[in-house]
Every structure is written in structure tokens, then in C-alpha cells.
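From the pipeline queue, job 12 of 40. The input is one protein chain; the requested action is below.

Action: predict structure.
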Amino acid sequence: MWKPVTENKVAVAIWTYRKSHENDLSLKIGDVVCLSESIDGWYRGHVPPNKTVTGIFPASHVHRKEQSSNQGESLEDTDSLIEELDCVLKEWHSVLTDRFKTNEMLWFSELRKVMLELIDLRRQLMSGQLTQEPAREVKIQITNRIDVGNERMGLDLIPSVDGKIIDTNICSIVDLHQVHLQSVAQTAKVLPVVMDAGWLLAVKSAGIDIAPPSQMRVEGMAAFAHHIHLQLKNFGCSIGEEAEAFFALYDAKESRFISERYLAKFNKLGVPNNIDRIGNLCTIFSELSNKDIVRELYLTCHIIRKGAMLTTKKAASNFRRPYGCGVVSLSTVLSEPVDDVSSTAKEFVMKIVQGSSEAEFSQLHDNIIRKHMSKLGASSTTNIGISLSLRMLHGHFDQLKREMPLLFSKGVTITRKLGFSDVIMPGDVRNDLYLMLDRAELERGKKTAGKNVEVTVHVIDGNNKKMKCISLGGDEDEVDEYRSAIFYHTNQPRWNENIRLSIPMEKFKDTHIRLECRHCSATRGDRNLFAMAFMRLMKEDGTTVEDSEHELFVYKCAENQDFEKPLYLNLPSCTQEMVTRSSPAFGNNTFNRNMRETFFIRTIICSTKLAQNVLLLDLLKWRGHPDNLKETLHHLTKVGGQEIVRVLQDILDALFNILDEKAHHYEKDVFDALVYILGILGDTRFKSFTTVLDTYIDKFFSSTQAHMFLVKQLKRYVDDSVTERAETVIATLKAVQNLFKFIFRSHVLYKKATGDLHDGNIQDSMRCLFASMNKLMSHTEDKVKLHQLILLKNFSMIATELRVMYNAAEVAQFIIELLEHMPRKALTPEILKAKLVFISETIKSNLFKDSSSRFFLLEPCTKQLKYHIENKNELVMCVDILGSILSNLHNISKTESVDSDVSILVKHLFESILDLVMSLDKKSGVLCITCLLHLLHFMKESHYEEVRSSFVDSERHRDFLKKVLKVFKDLASRNIYPSEWMAMKMLSQSVILNATRRISVDLSSTFLNAENANVQNNSRAFAGENWLERRIGFELWFDYFRLACIFITQPCLQFETMTHAKQERMMSRHGDMRVDMAQEIVSKWQSLGDYKSLFRDLTRPFLEVTMVRQADIRRLILPIIFDIMCCEKLERGTFGQLEDDLIDKLDTMVCVEKKGDENYAVLFNQVLLECIASQPWREEGEQFVDKVKRLLERLIDYRNVSDGRVENRHLRLNCLYNLMNFYKDDANREDIYTRYIYRLRDLHLESQDYTEAAFTLMVLAESQDWTDKMLPPDDKHPKQTEMKRKEALYHEIIRLLDKGEMWEFGIPLCKELTTQYEGKLFDYEKNSRILQTQASFYDNILKKQRQPPTYFRIMFYGNFPLKSKSWIYRGRPFDQLSTIQNQLQADFPRAKKWIKVDPPFSADLRDNTQYIQIRALETVPTDDNFKGMKVPIQISSYYDSHKISKFKFDRPFNKGEKDPNNEFKTLWVEQTTLKIENTFPSLLRWADVISTETVEITPIQNAVGVMESKNKVIRSMIAEMYANPDRNINPLSMILQGTIDAAVQGGPKKYKIAFLSPEYKKAHPEDGELCLNLEKLLMDQLKILKEGVDLHERLCPDDLADFQKNLATKLVELRRYFGLTPVNARVGSNPTTPTGKSRTNTASGIFTYKRTTVVGQPKSSSSGKTSSISEEPAGTSKFYLDGITETNSQVSPSQDGRKAGSSPIKKGRATIAVPRYLPLNSETGSKTKLQVPWPLKKSDSSSSIPDRSSTASLQSPDIQETGSPRSLTPTDKHLKSPHKDNLLRENYKGPTLPPRYSNGSRPNSSGSVTSSSSTTSSRDDAGAAVDDPNAPPALPERKPATQVDSSSPRSILIDAAKPLPHELPENGDTSPPPPLPTKKISIGGANPIAASRRRTGYDQTPPAIPIKNRSHSISSTVNRLSDGDYSPRSSLGEGDEAPPPIPSRPEKRSLTSPSGMDVAPLSPSQHSSIPLSPGLLTLEPIPSSPPPPSIPPPELPETLPAQVEKLAGELKTESNGRLKVPPPVPTRPKSRRGSTPNPEPSDIA
């Protein structure tokens, strides 16, 4: 049988338990469970706060907590706080992660610290061991930290009060609003002083005025008593004698002590004399006021040693001598917040300082504070200071003793404040006199030195006995004498010592103080009396001495003077007594006064019985002189308030005694005196004494007849308020509250004394008094306005006191009568405010909680509020009163029904509040809105019925509903509450939802009934459609649907944007209110029936609702869109208008408002297609839905990629392009179409794609005509005619085309503008400018060098958000594969590079893997429009790469057996042609591939194509040089050398052998025509070469003379080989240059120019100096390229210009272009071997090298790492390099430059560094240097042969060979294979030549050859290939941890093919057998060096196996000791129905 759980009802789930039966309760680890019943291993309970869901669960799955019996806090409060804390920590964790990811480490560390603190506080709270007060403090700390953290991070505010989380389900809305305001204010207090603008904005939006932090601390301390707790930890002063340490509080600003002294005594060892006090030397400086703790306070310590007079003379004595002083500032202690319950003691070390003079000892503390260093002495080395701790305490001692019992358990002493505290409670009897020994002025006498004066203080009573009343401080017993400190040889000592004299009051009159002065001997140790002084404590008139300084007379006396007889009392003690006493002024025989000696003391008396004022003394002793009583009472008004409050109780007793005994004679005087005293207590200075007065009335007041006289006199003053003195009436009315307290208390005492329970006389008197007050309130004279104001301010307090004499209903009637007697109109603002305050206080009083009094109060107060609200009088106060009413009613409703009260509010205030909400702004109307929501929350269906019944006609009813719906719509659409007030927002939305449901009933029942439906057909003919709309309340329905849509779409209800923790919290508390409202929409929509067509304008709101990211809402509302479609089809027959509306709305909602997602487009299509499936217009509807769906997809795609924070330019451009195409053909969407055109243009301009931007605008310009039609303004242009718009667009397009160097496209536009300017507008000025622009375009085409763009094919494999997966991409000039790859990687960061030829398989694309494949393409120009025409190459070459729609790439391969001597015989080419729809350039840089075609080209066809291309390139170059002979000659030199002297592959000779032999013609008769074409092309090439060599001879400078001679020699040999007539090569002659210079042979055999002077002509300034047409830095390498790629593009001299560090090589091999033989030496007549100069020295001057980015600079060769180059096939000439730095459309490679240094410069011929940024220098006719930025650098100048040491060979490091073109992957990737060992080739010379590097800049150091490492790593195939590792491995996942790397064994390196297959390295013999392409020089291979050794694997320690085994054993033991599975589930108990369900085993946590 189930038994209730009585103890330890709380348990924590330690295992997860899943519900397996309907009676079970699911548990998760950590859930707190409340247990209710138990049975046989099972519990029944619930998980708070959801008490309704209960169930059973196994007892073994929970752990019961032992709950402390004194915990004091309810379980529900703790659980709610823990639950809220858990949610907060989860939410903060996500923020913490985000901060870490964004590298905001300061935020991260601060937030982490606070989270750890919260976790620790949570642990303390969950322990259950905290008592009530510590648990409360922990909860407050938790809520404060949560509030501060949420505020700083902009999260939701958690409503809480004193650490308790407010349950919004049971809290009133008004109270919840106030809690939020208090939380914001509390958060402001605990926030740092530096407040950010966001916080201030949030606070101000809540309507809170935040004071500065300093004001917060002071304002929060009202009526508090403050204390400072002092504890001495260690007395670290080594004095060697007994010591006394006096501690006191010192005000540095006023230079005075404000407290007594606390004495701590120590022995010689520094240990307290009192052993019991060891470790417990504590005191509390008590009773500090609010003003005291803002003083500049210090804790001072004066140390007095007890011992010898001098430390150097140790004599047996007990003198008190000054030692030192210490000071500690209390600013840090006093600055702690008053409400900081967690404040702890602060540790200090007080350094003890000794003064420079004993005379300054009394002021030593002040000198230390003010840092008067000259008066301070040095500290002793043994003085380490006094260790102490200080702590602030707040509150009265009774409260502190309850809260901190341990603090007072050890008998802590109390050190009081000097003088009275702020509050003197009745019964506190105190009679203390503080005496301060200030100073003395004594004579030296006959002594040569000053005296050692010691003053002894005695208190002598009337019997001449010494009194033990002297308190030294601390816990010391009172003594009868006090000895002062002794200052050595000082006649004017200053002591500044303070003692307290506790003298009984009865002995005070005859007591006096005697001060005895003694001289102390330093040698003998005795004391000798020499003078005395005294002072009486009470004057002759009975008053005590004043609180001031007293100058006492000093009387000489004998050394052995006997004081048994006080003969000195007959003498005056001071000057004042000489006047009041008739005594001898100069002493008597025994005591003689010394006129030159005085003694100064100060006194402060703290007595509650003794008076220092004669007038007070007369009143207190009135019975002694009753005849003067009237005068005494009158003089009381002259006594100050400070003196009155000291003896307040005695004064009140005296007054009421007079009233009891002599009331008939002095009742008016007593009443006036009492009013005066009560007026003093009402002053702000004595406000704290209000509690004292209340205590006196309750405990010490004893008059039984005072009420009669007080009521009588009070009524008299109220009746005579018009005639009486205003000051007297005002003072009386201000005291009326306290007067009523005396009246009521006296009445109670009277009833107790007489037994008259009714006391009819006082009842009548009171009613007469209230009647007089009502009469006073009805006056309208200005004189009584102030009287009325004061009475109103105090009457609410009177009403509270009236409960003593009257019941609640009677008191309520008194209040209502007073309000009704007040006039409503003509009230001054002050009285109006006072009236409203009175009503507010009445509502907040206990009277309103009583149902009997509330019956009388509520309706009159409500009417008063209604009047003032409607008249806009003090609206804020009125709303505040209304909030109080609602809050009180909410609390009352928990115990009783308040329906009748709510009915009163609804009846009088509902409409007034609605009007007020509509008129107020957001800030002032927040509380009003809260009150409205609270009233709606109260209203039930009966209240709504009352509202409906109150309307007399439907028109007023409709106006009311319209007003309500408008208010609700405003509340839902505006942010009424701050964003962090989520609890308030959700509660308000719940109220609006419920109220909307109630109000919607009226729409269906009242404004859509059967009668209206029946008369539709009959009435429409008379009134038309408007009548119908009016009858069904069209506006009401429209407002309702708008409200519902706004409610669903408001941001605070969008749970999808919240964190997961916040979603769970909101859903569990409030549910998804959006779904409820959506169901209401559907219900009301269906009830419309045939009237749905009237609401077609609601398409946008409904569409917004469907875009909410909630599937249920979308499925509910999308059918409404279908209904609108049906109405549209029925009314108009098409969807045109609806389509326009949807397109307009979707564009704004998706792109601007960021609504909708991908799932929405799918669901939109699915739901609507399902709805229209059965419609007759299905096909048309499907087209409409499909169009909207496509638009949605495009808009969502564009919005997703339009985030400016992400670099996704390609996706943004693609989405914009798709949107443009969507709107292109829609004439109604021209504005949207234009807007997207401008957006596309702007994106192009951001990336400097000027051509694409121009073509984008061209689309817009072409859509317009040259007419005068006015066009509306758009995003870029104002309102203007169509002609002006088109003209502006044309000018912008022309400007962009000029920037993009697309002058061919700009010329037609210029012509069209010319036509308009010349023939229609006749604007010759504009025509002139446009013609100039057109002319400049023509000039630019011919003169400016343009590099052709690059083209690439891009393939996308995997899940890409693209429609097409194959692109043709137009790159910039010199773009390479890596550049395009990086650009795409920004858009697709997860994509990887696919390097294989074949596409990836499905297995490669698992896990949404993305791959991108890129390869370079060649253009396929269209038909030659210039065929048969002589067109300049600058014109024709442009169309080889523009206006292109076809592209191709080749893959060479061999068929059949490969001929090692001539590979061209079997070299086939697989050519793939790609086609796009439009031509490039276009609106985008890419286009979709529409078709692909692949063909195979035979070897001879390939040879014919290569020769055609080669001839075209040479012709173009020659033509260009003819046209511009001043250009750089290097390109012509290189192309001639590469063709004539093709030393590597044989050049044209190989073609002749392969295809023009009789054997080939016989074997391939079908190729006869091709053979003829090839033979003709060869002959043409020889002719072209002859022309080129001749041109070269005329143009080349003198430093290329040998080079020219070599070309001529080789050409002769080549022509001879082909059987042509030899050309005479002018070898050894001295030809003449075009500039008139003659060539001469130098000793080195190198031609140089020598300038000659013509007679009769002026001599050039540069005569006699060596000059050249185009110079190049001296010493540049003579290394030339072998493989020259021919294309259909023009080769310009500047085409070889590259950026610094770029490589010009595509796929050719690096060779050394060296003439085989040099010309004959003029001296020896023999042929000289050419020495290749290489600049390696650094001593010579440098030459300027132009910037490769703008000029045609020379490129370095691609020198490989292998010793032998591979053969180069002719098809290499058609492959484009993917590398940015290597890209040249023509494979012309200029002469090689040496590698750059790290700073970007190169060495010149002498080894010095040359700058890479300078331009090529040339000279004009005068010989001056001219900078030509377009001219490439000239060929290097040779050095004399004598400088080259030919005896030792030179070594050149050559890079590893690149893979051949047919070995490359299809995408053109040229990733390098594993590096091979470096080989050296001896060419001659001693210095090695640095190797060039492939794919790297020349300004970088060549990478070292890496050692192969076979360690596992997370890398892609690309990385493994680049690292040289081709072994198959399983790749790791992204999150897998890689094992440690294992070094590989040493192994041979091998070449690797791009396909991933290992290839054995070539032997030296194989190197020599590789066939070479024509024109390449074969290098002699040298044996390779051995591979570098690999790193051996590390050795494992021998003990490792044993350690592993030991660790495994420990883990096994640990796992055995830990429970891995949950405990078994016991047999399920029988249910209450008798069944026995068996629970399934629960899951393991």
C-alpha cells in the first residue's frame, strides 16, 4: 500500500528513466523530484514546477536529499531558482562559445568567471545545509549576478524579488511591471560605475531615473545606524615595556575625534595583559550616523609605554610616556554599499610612526595624515605595525545580534560615539560626561629645565570621596583616578587625552573634578605635587556645564598637600565663577592662584536627564514654581530642537502631567507647546525621532484624559482656520497625525481605566471634528488652500489610526465624505496632487483589503479617477492609482471573488483607459497599457456581456470594437516594453490572445448574421457594394485579420530566432500562441463564406504569416492564399492582379524584411498544388504557382548570399542575374528589374569588373528609345525624359568600357550619340566631345597594349546551390588556376579541388562533399571577318579573344609505337570544344556550357595547325616591329631564335622527317593535301624568318651583334637544309646601324656601336658615349625559352610583362640559348667558345629594371630541378598555363633575368641589386634619358670575355622537369611532382647559377627539397600529391584525431605522373634518349646526387609494454569500482486500478 513520504521529500535523479507506462514519470539525470508516496522500491512524485504531471519511478534511480530542519525557505522557491539558473547557464554557454570563436577573450574570461561563480553558488544552495539567512543571501547573489550578466549581454531580464523568482502565472501584471522596474534599478546599483549607452537607453526606456553611484549610496542609508567592527590581529611593536594602545575615530576634515577611545593593554612581550583577550581584542565603534560615514574618517592609534622616564636610564618607575602613533584610512571600508550583505572584513597593517618631538605627540596623527614629514620621526626597524581587520555593520544592535550571534558571543566591547547618537529611544538612560585633557601653560620656576608634568584626574562627590567612575576605554574597569602621559621637560604640555566619566545623576549636583599636577623625577622615579585645578559639574542655577572648552585657574599647593578638606571649593575655578560666586580671586592661605598659569579642558555631556538650558529646567521642575508655568510654557518655543530631543521623554511627561492636573487653566498653552515639539520632530533633521515618539506613545504615555482636551483644541483651530494666524493653523495641521496618535492612545487608556467601552462623548467630538475638516475642505478661498493641502497630506494617516475607534466601513465613509466635499474643478495643481496621493494611500491601506470598506471606497474613487483621466489631469498619478487598485484586487482574488469590483472598473474606466492608451506616447503610456492588460486579464465572459449590453445601438458597438482592435493592433506592432522584458511581453501577448478570442465572437454573431446574408441579392441593387461592406462590418473584419497577422509575426513570438534553452523555457510556460491565433484566423475566415472576396487586399498580411518559420502555421494559412486565388479567378478571370501583388510583396518581404526560407518555397508549392488539383483552372493555377515558386527560390537564394560579412561574390552575382532574367520580360515590373540592374552593376564595380558593369547597363539602355517620354525616378536617376535617361546611361557605359579597355564596343555608342547630337539635338558641343572620345578609342586600339583575358572551364561536383554545374569563366589577363580556385573558395569554403581527369564517383561525394575542377581553355574565334584584307594586327588580334562563344582544350596522346627520335609521328591530339549561348564579354564573367564536342586530330593535322599558328605569330611580330621600330626588340629576338635554332626538338626539321618523307606519303596517300600544305607552310616560314632576320639586323643594338650574327648563320644552315639558296651572312663585317653608328669588333668578339660625328652638323650632347636604342640592365642572363606557344592572338612587345616574381613559363622546358659558334676573333682568327655571363658579384653599379606589372619586362626561364629536360610536344603551344605569374597568351618568353632578391630586386651584371619598380630607360636624340613605361628592358650588355674565367666550369642548378602536356590532368593542373635530387650541368665558368623556381615568385628563396614523411595527416589528395606521397591511405574525417607521425624508411625518389602512378626515375641514358621538340637545346646530363637520408623511426622504451599493462589494470580496477549500468528495476507496484504494469529497464545515463 502506498505510504506518504513525511521526511526528506526531495530527491535528485541519478539515472535516466524513460516512461514505459502511462503511470510512469520520465526522469533525466539531475532532475529535482518532489516525493509524495512510496511503496516497495517505488516512489510517486513530480518534477517541479509542473505539479500536475505526477507518476511513479524506481527508488533506485533517485537519491533522497537530507533537508535541514532550519532551512526556512520553501522547496518551490529554491527549485524555481535552480531551474531558472540552469536555463540561464545553458543560454550563457552558447554566448560563451560565440565569444570564444570571435576571439573576444576579455568578454570570454569575464563571462566564464561569472558562470563559475554561479555554479559554485548553485552547489551551495543545492547542498541543503544553509540556514535561512545564508540561503537568502546566496539567492540574492544568484539573482543579482544573473541580472547583471543578462543586462550586459542583452538577454532577458529574470523577474525576482529578494532572490525569489516571480511566477508569472500567479503574479499580477501590474506587480510584474513594478518588479521589472525594480530589477533594472537593482541592476544599475550592482553594475560598475562606467555605464554604457546601451544600458542607459534600456533604463530610460523603462522610465527610470538613475542617480549617480555616489547618490545611490547616500540615499539608500536613510534611518540607518552604522557601526565599524575592529579586531586586532597582531601587535607588531617591540617596545620592551608595557604598552597601552588607544584607538579612536578621527575626522581629518574637522580635525577632531568623534568617538571614545578603545584601550588595549600589552605586556613587555606584546601579548595582551588579559589572557582571555588573546585573539579576541575586538570592539565596535557604534552609532555612526549617515553624515558620519561620509566624513573623511581615519582610525588612529596612540601608544603609551609604561616604564622609565628615559629609555637610556632604566629606573624602577611606572611613568606613562608617549611612544608612537599609527593611522589607517577608512575610506575603503565606508564606501561599501549599505545593502551589501556579503561584505567581509578588510585586512590592514597600521605602521607606527614616532614623532620628531614629544611636544607634537598630541598632533602626531594629524601630521601623519597631512604628511608633514618634517614633524615625523623614523620608524623603528623592529616595528612591523599592528595587524587589524575592519568591517562595516548596518542596523540596530538588536538586529545585528540576531543576524550575527557569533560576532557578539565573545563579549565584544562597545566604543560609543562622542555625544548623542541620531536616535535616542525612550527608556535609554544615559548620564556620561566626556573630559578631554587639552593642554596646560605652566611656569618653569626655579628649575633650569622644564618640568615633567603628570596630571592626575579625580572625580570627587559631595562627601569629598573619590568616585570610581573614570572609564579609560575598552573592557577595563572603572577607576577612581587617571594619570596622564608625561612629556619630558615640557612646561606647556598638550595631552589631547579623552576619558569618560559615568556619574550617577543623583550625585551629579555636588560632584566636581580635581586635576593634580605633579613633577616626576627621571632619576629618583618619585612624583612631587606642585599645583592643582578643579571644576564644578553643575552651576548654581541647576544646569550642567556647557559643551565647550574651559580655562581653569591653577592653584599652587604644597608637595604634601592634604585634600581631605576641600578648602579650594570656596575659590573660583574659572573666570565665570568669579562673577557668580563671591569668593577670593587670588586664593587663600592654602591655595594660591598663579596668575600666569592656566589649565584647559573640554567637556561634552551626554545625559537624557540633565539639562544645560535654564528654560528646560524650569519646565522639568514646574511644580517648584507653578506661578510661572504659563511663562515657562511660552518660553519653551525658544529652546532649540537639539536640546529638546535629548530630554524628549521628560518634556512630554511634564506637559501631559500639566494637562492632567491643570488642564482648565493651561490646556491651550500645553497644546501650543505640544504642537511646537511635534513640529520639531517633523523637521528633517530629527526625522529619525519619529520612531522614538511612537515608542513613547505605545509604552510610556499614560494620560487618560488628554484626548478630550486635544480634540477640543484641534477642532477650535480647524474651525478658526480662516481667522486664526496662518502659521499657528499650519503648525497644528502638520502635527495632526501625531496629535491623533495621542488622542487614540489616551482614548484606549481611558477605556481601560473606566471600563466604558463606548465612550459616547468622544465619538460625538470626533464626528464634530471631521465635520469641521469637511467644511475646511469645501472652502474655495485662497487663504485656506495651504491648510487644505496639509490636511490632505495627513488625513490618510489619520484614517489608519481611526481603526482604533471605528470599524472599516465607518472609516471609509469618513474618507468618502472628505473627498465629496472637495470641489472637482478649480483645484490648484498642488491640491490636486495631494488629493490623488490621498486616494492612492487609501487604496494601498488595509481599508481597501476589507470587503466592507471596499464596498464604499471603490466606486467613488473610480469616479474620481474617471473624471481626472477624461480631463487629462495628472495622468501619471491616475494611472498609478489604477495600478494599485488592480494589484490589490489581484491579491484579494486569491481568497475571495472580486467580480463585482471588476464590474465597477469595467463600467467606469474601460473605455477611458482605451482612449488614454490611444492618446499617450510609448514612454508615458507603458504603465497605462499594463493596467489595461491587467483589466482585460480580470474580465470574464460576464464582464464582456455587460459591456455588450451597455451599447444602445450597433453603431456604438462597432465603434467600440474598432477602438479595441486598433489598440490591440498597436500593442502587438509596437515595442511597448524593452526587449529584455520577455516575461512581460509574453504575459501581455497571452492577454491579447484571450481578449481577441472573446471580442471575435461579436464579429460572427453581430456583424455577420443570416439576415445580412439573405438580403444581399435584394439590397445590392439599391445601395451597391458599399452597403454590403458596411452591413457586414467590413472594417472590423479587416482590422481583426490585420491584428491576427501582426500578432503572429511580431518578433517576440518568433521562437526560431531564440536559443534552444530559451525556446524550451518559453514553450513550457506559454506554449506557441502563434498556432492558436492562426487557428482563430482560419475559423473566422471560413465563417466569411461568400464574403471572402472582399478581403483580397489581405494577401500581404496572410503571406507574411505563411513565412513564419512554423510548419503548422504555414499549413493552416496557405489554403487562405488558395481561397484568394479562387476569388481572383472568379472576379477577374485571371491571376494577373494577384500575381503582381505577390511579386511586389515577395520581393520586399524576402530581400528587405528577411522573411521566408527554403522550406517555405517547397511547402508553398506543395500545399497550393494540392489545393488546385481539383479545380477546372488547374493548368493556369499550376503555372501561377510555379512562377511564384521560382521567384521565391531566386529571392531566397539572393538573400542568403547577400550577407556583406561573407565573401560570396559569385553567388551574389549569379542570384542577381537570375532575378534579372525573371523580371526581364515583365513589363509591369520595370522598377524591380531596374533596381536589380543597378545592384548587379554595383557588385561589378566593387570588384572592378568594368566591362561586365557596362554590359549590365547596356541591357537597361537598350530597352529605352530616343523619345521625350517622361520616366519616373529610380535609384540612380531623377525624374527625366527617356532620351535624357538613355544619354546618361550611354555616357556611363562609355566611361566603363574605357576603363575596361573595350573600346571596340564603345565606338558604336559614340556613333549613336553623334547621330543624336548632330542630326536631332544639334548639340555640337557635346558632339565635339563625343567625337574626341571616339577618336581616342581608335587611337587606343592601335597604340595601347592590351593583354587578352584567360578562359577556364569550371566543373562543380556535389551539392552546390547552382543550377548549372559547368561554367566557362572569363578571367583577367594572367590569371592562373590558383587565383580562380581561391575566388571560388570564398563562395564555397567546403569545396575541395578535384585534380583527376575523370569526374568523381558517388562514393567520393558522400557526406555532402563538394569538389571544383578548373582547367584552362583556348578560344575558337569565329569566321575571320578580315579574311583577304590587310588589317593591322592590333585590330584583328582583339577578336581572337573577344566576341567568342566557342572554346577548346587539347589532350595530346600517342597512338602506336612511339619513335624515340621523332615523337611527332605518333602524336595525336584529343580536342574538346565547348559552346555557350552568348558571347564573351557579357553581363557576367561566366556562362553556362550548353554543348560539348570532342574530336581527335591526326599528327599531320596537328603539325599543320602548329605551323599555321607559328607563322601567324612571326608575321604579327614582324608587322608590329615595322610599325613601331622603337619598341623593344627582345620579343622579336626570342621568337626568331626559338624558331631558327630549335636545338631541343629539332624544329621544322623534325616535321620534314616525319611527314614530308616519301615513305610517309606512300603510307598515307590520304594526307597528300596536308603534306602539300605543310610543305608550303615550311617554305613560308623560311621566307618569314629571312624577313625577320633582316629586320632584326637593322633594329638590334650593338650589344646584340653576336646574337644577330648567330641568327644569320643558323638561318643559312636551315635554308640550306631545306634546299633553298643560302643567305649571305655578314659575319665579321662592321654593319651600319639605323642610327648612323658603326659596329666594331672588340677583343672579346662582341660587336659594339661607336658613334660618328657628321661634319657640318651640331655635335650631340652625348657624342662619344656608348648608347643604344633600348637598354636593359647589364648582366642580365642570356637564357632563352625553347617552347614557343603559338595562338591566334597578337604578340606585342609588352606582352611578356609580368608582375614582380612571376614566371613566364607555361609548359616548356628551360634551355640555354647559346650560339654554337661565335664569330672569328679578330686577333686569333679562330672561333671562340661562347662564355655565358651570369651576374653574381655585388660590387658593380646596378641598372634599372622596369616593373613587370606595367612594362614588357624580361622573364626568367623555368629552370627545372632535373638534369635533363623532357621533350616538348607541339601541342604544348595550344595549352594555357593556369598559373597567374606564368600566363602569356603567346608563348613568347623574353631573355631570362636572374632571380630576385627578397626585396624584389635583381642583381645586375656586376652583382649589384637592381630595383624592380623602376621603368626602362631610353634616350632621346639629345642623349637624355627618357622613361618609357611601355618599353620592355633591352637585352643585357655583354661583358668582355677576359672577365670570364673559362678554366673552371660553371654549374647551373636546374629544377625538376615539369610533366609533359599529355601527362597533365584534364583540368590543367600543374602541381609539381615529388622533387628530385638536384643535378648540375657544367656550362663554363666557376660560379653556380641559382635555380629558378616553378610557380613561385622570383623574389623568394627556392624551397628546399623536403624529406618524404609517411606520417598520417588530415589532408586531401591534392596535399598528398604535392607532398610527394602517392601511397594509398584511408583519409581521416574532419573531426578525427590524427595518430602521431611515423618516419618513413629511406627509399629512392621517383617521378610521379599526374594521374597518381609512380614512375621510375630516368637513368642518365634514358635522359639522353628522350626526343626533344624542335628548337630546343639538348643539355648534357650529369649523374644525379644520392637522395638525402630519411629520419629513422624513434626507439620505444623497453619498459613501455609493462607500463601499458599496468595502466590497463588500473583502468580495469577503476571501471569495476564504478557502476556502469543502472540498478535493476523492482517489480512494478499495483496501480490504483489494480493493474500491475511492468516497467521496462531504463536507459543508462
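Job complete. The CA atoms of residues 1351 and 1370 lie 5 Å apart.
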